[in-house]
Design goal:
By secondary structure, this protein is mainly beta. About 10% of the residues lie in helices and about 40% in strands.
């Protein structure tokens, strides 16, 4: 009798372990720790070495220890893109965008001559003053629209100040945090899983602007 009870208990434990493993996501839901020393700067704080502008005529300059993107009337969306490309990674930066300016950061993005004459396209992490869509994921340049369909959080971004974004891209999963608030957690198998990082200056309506957006402390940590 004892052996039967033991066998049943062992089987129950095994089933419980299987159920527990199946219920756990294959990715971490915790925000990456940006205080460790294993992050690599993407911006040297002095010049735009390692970056190339694609599309548009917005201007980019270095001022103090940050990159400033400035709108140009009549220009399409402009992008300052990393020369290096990345697959699985965690990315963090601080950003401060002018009121009225929509911006974003491209991840795993591409620019190919055979696709819309080099149009930058791929997942974009939205940057927008609150209330807005900051932290949600948009498919820039593809016509797909929003990758993050449900958007309940509209106020994680704090207007008029530096905002900390943290992003994890691993496999087809993209997760974002804005000022420590978990915003997006989406599966995106349709997009490329390898490409550059891009700092967007959005197009603006005629007779508006100019507007500026600033980025600093841009760091990346590749993942296996």
């Amino acid at each position: 009798m004892k052996s039967i009870v033991f066998a049943l208990a062992t089987l129950a434990c095994f089933v419980s372990q299987l159920s527990g493993n199946d219920s756990k996501p294959a990715y971490s839901q915790s925000i990456p720790n940006i205080e460790t020393g294993d992050w690599t700067p993407l911006f040297n704080g002095k010049n735009l070495t390692g970056w190339t502008q694609r599309n548009g005529t917005a201007t980019y300059r270095v001022e103090n220890d940050f990159i400033v993107g400035k709108t140009a009337e009549g220009s399409p969306n402009s992008f300052l893109c990393s020369n290096a490309v990345y697959g699985n990674f965690e990315l963090t930066f601080e950003v401060n965008a002018a009121a009225g300016l929509n911006s974003g950061v491209q991840i795993r993005s591409l620019s190919k001559s055979e696709f819309k004459n080099g149009r930058v396209h791929g997942p974009q992490i939205e940057i927008e003053n609150a209330p807005g869509e900051s932290g949600y994921v948009y498919s820039e340049g593809t016509g797909r629209g929003w990758i993050t369909v449900e958007q309940p959080i509209k106020d994680a971004y704090q207007n008029g100040r530096w905002n900390r974004f943290v992003i994890r891209a691993k496999g087809d999963r993209i997760q974002t945090w804005v000022n420590g608030v978990a915003v997006a957690n989406v599966s995106d198998p349709e997009s490329s899983q390898f490409g550059f990082i891009g700092l967007q200056v959005h197009s603006i309506p005629s007779d508006s602007g100019p507007f500026e957006v600033r980025w600093r402390d841009i760091r990346i940590r590749p993942l296996e």
